[in-house]
Amino acid sequence: MGRQPVYDRHGDVVGYELLFRSGPDAATATSRNAFATSQVIVAAFTEFGLDQLVGDRPCFVNLTREFLVGDLPVPFDPGRTVLEVLETVTADDEVCAGVRALTDRGYTVALDDFRPTGTASRLLPMATYVKLDMLDNDTETLTATVETLREQPGLTLVAERVETEERLALAFELGFELFQGHVLGRAHVISGRGLTPSAVRRLDLMTALTGTEVDVRKVVSLVTTDPALSFRLLRATNSAASGVRQKVGSIRDAVMLLGVQRVREWVALMVVSDVSEATEDEIAAVLIRARLCQTVAEHLGLPPESGFTVGLLSGVADLIGQPAADVAHHLPLTPDVAAALIRGEGRLGEVLATVHSYERVDLGALGQAPVDSGELAQAYLAALGWSTRTLDLLGDRT
C-alpha cells in the first residue's frame, strides 16, 4: 500500500492517507474500487498493523459506495481512522443515510476532491475534513470554494495534490489547515508478503457464522486450520481500533474476544480482498509445525491450544520473512506465548525449540529434548497426516 503524509501549517506530520498500490514499484493507484479499499483495510489492520503504519496519528482511508451504504462492512471501531468519501461517489439518499449512520456511530468523515456544484454538498453537515484539489482547480475556483466552506462551522480544510511551491503558498494564503502533496511528501509504498486464506475456508467460515446459533467450536476449528486467517484475526485483536485490551493465548481466545460479529465482518471483507498466496507446501509446513507443537505441549502437560499458537505464529513468521519476535510484538499474546516467540523462554519456548531441532535433524539438541526422539517421530507423522487430510479436504471441495 501507499502511505502519504498530511502536514499542518507548522510542517509537522499530523496524519497519513493510506492508498492502494498494485505493487512495490507502483507510483499511483491503478484502482479505486471496493477491491482496492478492501485490500487497504485488510493490509492496514491485519497485515502491517496500524501502529507500524501510522503510529499514534490518524489515517485517512478511501471508501467507495459499497462501504458507505453497508453492502460491505467497516470492520473496525471509530477512533484513529478517518473515512474518506471518494469524489466518484454520488451522494444520493442512500449514501447520505449511510454516512449519517456512520457518523452517529462515532466515525469521522472526510470529503475527497470536494466541488460545491457536486452532490457531496449534501454531506457537508456530517463532515469533519474537506479536501480541495490544488492541481486541477484554478485560483478563482479555489477562493470561491473556500469562502463557501467557511460558512459551514467546524470544517478542517485540507489542500491536496499540492505539487508546486506556488500552490503551497496559495493554500497558506487561503487559510487551509492541512496540506498534502508531492511538494511536501510523496506517497511511500510499503510492501510485505501476505497470505490469502483459502476461498473455501472463507466460505465455510461464513456459513458457520451466519446461522442463528453459532457453534464457536466449529468456528475455531475452521480458523485454526488456516494459518493466514488465524494470523489476521490475532492481529485484528491487537489493532488500535479494535478496542480489545486483553491478551490471548489461543485462536479460541481471539475469536471470543473479537466476537462473532467482528469475525464475520473480517471474513466477509477478506472474500473481497486478494493478497499474494503461499504455496500448498508452505501452508502444509506451517500446519505440521503447529500440530507438532500442540502434541509436544500436550505431552508436557501444557495447554495444547497454546502450543498450536506458538507453532503457527513461528511458521507464519517464516512465510512472511520476519523474525518471530517481530511478529509477536504486534500481537495480543499471553506472556507465556510471547516469551516463547520473542526470547525462546519458558516451557512453550522449550516446546518450540524441540520442534525446531526435530525439523533441522539436530541430533545433539534432540538428545537434550524433553520428549523421546521416537515419540517425536510418531508425533511428526501424525501431524503430517493431519495436515495432508486438511489440505486434501480443501482441494476436493474447490
Describe this structure in words.
- The longest helix has 24 residues, at 373-396.
- The chain has an eight-stranded mixed β-barrel with strand order 1-2-3-4-5-6-7-8.
- The protein has helices at 34-48, 50-54, 65-68, 93-104, 139-149, 165-174, 199-209, 216-224, 227-237, 251-258, 260-272, 280-299, 304-320, 324-329, 335-342, 346-360, 363-367, 373-396; strands at residues 2-8, 13-19, 59-63, 81-85, 108-111, 129-133, 156-160, 178-179, 188-189.
- It has three domains: 2-189, EAL domain (TIM Barrel), CATH 3.20.20.450; 199-272, no CATH class; 280-396, Orthogonal Bundle (Hypothetical protein af1432).
- It is elongated and about 80 Å long.
- Helix 9 packs across helix 13, helix 12 (280-299) crosses helix 16 and helix 12 (280-299) packs across helix 18.
- The protein has 398 residues and is α/β, with parallel strands linked by helices.
- It is 51% helix and 11% strand.
Summarize the model shown.
By secondary structure, this protein is α/β, with parallel strands linked by helices. The protein has helices spanning 34-48, 50-54, 65-68, 93-104, 139-149, 165-174, 199-209, 216-224, 227-237, 251-258, 260-272, 280-299, 304-320, 324-329, 335-342, 346-360, 363-367, 373-396; strands spanning 2-8, 13-19, 59-63, 81-85, 108-111, 129-133, 156-160, 178-179, 188-189.
